[in-house]
Automatic annotation (TrEMBL):
Protein name as catalogued: Riboflavin biosynthesis protein RibD
A Gene Ontology molecular function term of the record: 5-amino-6-(5-phosphoribosylamino)uracil reductase activity
Catalytic activity: 5-amino-6-(5-phospho-D-ribitylamino)uracil + NADP(+) = 5-amino-6-(5-phospho-D-ribosylamino)uracil + NADPH + H(+); 2,5-diamino-6-hydroxy-4-(5-phosphoribosylamino)-pyrimidine + H2O + H(+) = 5-amino-6-(5-phospho-D-ribosylamino)uracil + NH4(+)
Keyword Oxidoreductase: yes
Recorded family membership: In the N-terminal section; belongs to the cytidine and deoxycytidylate deaminase family.
PROSITE patterns named in the record: CYT_DCMP_DEAMINASES_1, CYT_DCMP_DEAMINASES_2
EC number: 3.5.4.26, 1.1.1.193
Cofactor(s) required for function per UniProt: Zn(2+)
Pfam families reported in the protein's UniProt record: dCMP_cyt_deam_1, RibD_C
Cofactor detail note: Binds 1 zinc ion.
Source organism (scientific name): Corynebacterium pseudodiphtheriticum
Pathway(s) where this gene product acts: Cofactor biosynthesis; riboflavin biosynthesis; 5-amino-6-(D-ribitylamino)uracil from GTP: step 3/4; Cofactor biosynthesis; riboflavin biosynthesis; 5-amino-6-(D-ribitylamino)uracil from GTP: step 2/4
Key words of the record: Hydrolase, Metal-binding, Multifunctional enzyme, NADP, Oxidoreductase, Riboflavin biosynthesis, Zinc
Length: 356
């Protein structure tokens, strides 16, 4: 194999396999890196064998490329780098990854996303100027990798947050197939099955914060923790736990789970989002209830939607939203479906706002 991958089918498979490995590495650290992006990087030898894998460490730690280079060691010279984000080109708490790659003597760099951060961008140009072959996989036509990672593209919320200058908001809810989040008697546990609930907790462990309203906090007394069932049947907390955030002005009970575990409360949505951004959050999950979800939708702060849909007919009950989005079909919020997944007997629809 030459020092620069060609566009052959074999090389495309190598690149896609490396990119999949980079995404898996990024998924492992998602939720622990903000305000930095959860990036994955893979070092390939001249023969296309993986000799280093890295992911972004918590703030102040090494970036993904540095972790992968350290693992690869001397094998980095003449190697090929596959990374999910354009290598950075600025001096922050750590040095520029572009310079580290140049110093390591790599032959080529293949990156998936261009860096939207104007402070850190420019790594591709610097690498090219140093004589390193650089390829933008997202625009190359070689990319055939179909994301099978549990949460999709790990970088998407960070990319959007950086472009918007505010945290990325995912609105999540569970509903019956006819659109109710609770039965007419108010019962809602459990609309979805165990597989869907397992996914919710895994998802929580990968977010910077979970947001609910005071109504949900007072009615349900939630813990807002991320938990999993071990092989021995124990319920254990994930290592990574998101911030717990409550929006509203009502006081919570002194003996509530949130008071015991710790939470932050803000009077309204704009105040909460501004504060979370300043604290380094980039990716948050809103878990309702209906009034808060309606407020987020009405304020234009919903960037993605997760709808866990159970094959259950209720006919009446509590709606997912507390108020109408629009008076007619034209005024409703149209969504584009990105992913459809079956979780046991339930279906998870992952969507983003579409063209109106």
């Amino acid at each position: 194999m030459t020092s620069e991958f060609s566009a052959s089918a074999l090389d495309a498979r190598i690149l896609n396999a490396a990119l999949s490995a980079a995404h898996r590495a990024a998924l492992e650290v998602r939720g622990s890196t903000s305000p930095n992006p959860p990036v994955g990087a893979v070092i390939l030898t001249e023969n296309g064998d993986i000799c280093g894998v890295g992911a972004t460490e918590p703030p102040g730690g090494r970036h993904a490329e540095i972790v992968a280079l350290d693992q690869a060691g001397r094998s980095s010279k003449g190697a090929h780098v596959v990374v999910t984000l354009e290598p950075c080109n600025h001096q922050g708490r750590t040095g520029p990854c572009s310079q580290a790659l140049i110093d390591a003597g790599v032959a080529s760099v293949h990156y998936l996303h261009a860096d939207p951060n104007v402070i850190a961008a420019g790594g591709a140009e610097k690498l090219r100027a140093a004589g390193i072959a650089v390829h933008h996989l997202g625009a190359s036509g070689l990319l055939q990798w179909d994301s099978t990672a549990i949460l999709g593209d790990e970088l998407e919320p960070w990319l959007q947050a950086t472009a918007m200058g505010r945290v990325h908001v995912t609105a999540k809810f569970a509903q019956s197939v006819d659109g109710f989040s609770a039965a007419s008697d108010g019962s809602s546990k459990w609309i979805t099955g165990s597989k869907a609930r397992e996914r919710v907790h895994f998802d929580r462990s990968k977010r910077d914060a979970i947001i609910i309203g005071t109504g949900t906090a007072l009615a349900d007394n939630p813990s807002l923790t991320a938990r999993y069932i071990s092989e021995t049947g124990e319920t254990l907390p994930y290592k990574q736990q998101p911030r717990r955030v409550v929006i509203g002005k009502s006081d919570l009970s002194a003996c509530s789970n949130l008071q015991r575990l710790g939470f932050t409360q803000y009077p309204d949505i704009p105040t909460a989002l501004t504060a979370l951004w300043e604290q380094g959050c980039r990716d948050v999950l809103v878990e309702g209830g209906p009034k808060l979800l309606s407020s987020f939708v009405g304020s234009g702060y919903v960037d993605a939607v997760q709808a866990y849909v159970a094959p259950l007919l209720l006919g009446d009950g509590r709606s997912v939203l507390a108020s109408a989005v629009g008076a007619n079909l034209v005024d409703g919020m149209r969504l584009e479906i990105n992913r459809v997944e079956r979780l046991g007997n339930d279906v998870l629809l992952t969507m983003v706002p579409g063209a109106q």
